[in-house]
Amino acid sequence: MVEDYSMVEDMPDFAQWVDANAGAFDFSDYIHAQVVQGRMTTDVLGALVGWLWPQLLEVGGLIVLASRKDKLPLLKSQGLSDGEVEYWCNFTNLDGMLPGVPVSFTGHLAHIVHDMWSAKLQSEFPSKQFRVSVIEPRDKNELSVTFQQKR
Q1: DSSP state at residue 67
Q2: What angle do CA 104, 95, 123 make, to 5 degrees?
Q3: Most buried one in 18, 80, 101, 124, CB count within 10 A?
């Protein structure tokens, strides 16, 4: 991740909106404007918050995203280790989720998700240790995030 990267570089509508408002507005003002204009629904906002700060479940000693718990039986039936089951159950491919979004933005987002999921896991399971991973292939064409317990 580039330390001096600014998401706003890849957010032309936001930048234009800030310029039009003489720079006196921030992200919360922009979100407010989008909600008022009907461009951002409660569903979208809730899904975004729920993804960034997810509900987690402990199922048979495994820690998984609650929204993915239905994948557990299939993954377990494939003979995977507990760590592999957690890895694949919690795996999220950002490029697949956000087609057409600039790689610079998804790369930055991947590291934000890493930090948020790490904090969430630590706050809910303080006695456990986790490996939260940002998977960045050499070609940087595909970014993913996942987590699993350290065993």
Answers
A1: G
A2: 85
A3: 18
Q: In the numeric block, which tokens belong to residue 83?
A: 């760590």
Sheet holding 92-93, edge to edge: 92-93, 144-149, 130-135
pTM metric for this prediction: 0.87
Residue ranges per structural domain of the chain: 1-40, 50-149
- Token pair of 68, please? 């993915």
- Answer whether 132's CB lies under 8 Å from 118's CB: yes
Q: Cα–Cα distances in Å, from 63 out to 37, 75, 112, 133? A: 39, 14, 20, 15
The structure tokens listed for 22 are 């003489």
Buried b (16+ CB within 10 A) or exposed e, 54-89: bebeeeeebbbbeebeebbeebeeeeeebeebbbbb
pLDDT in tens, 113-128: 999 999 999 999 999 9
> Which residues face 15 on adjacent strands?
none
pLDDT tens digits for range 73-89: 999 999 999 999 999 99
DSSP labels for 93-129?
EHHHHSTTS-HHHHHHHHHHHHHHHHHHHHHH-TTS-
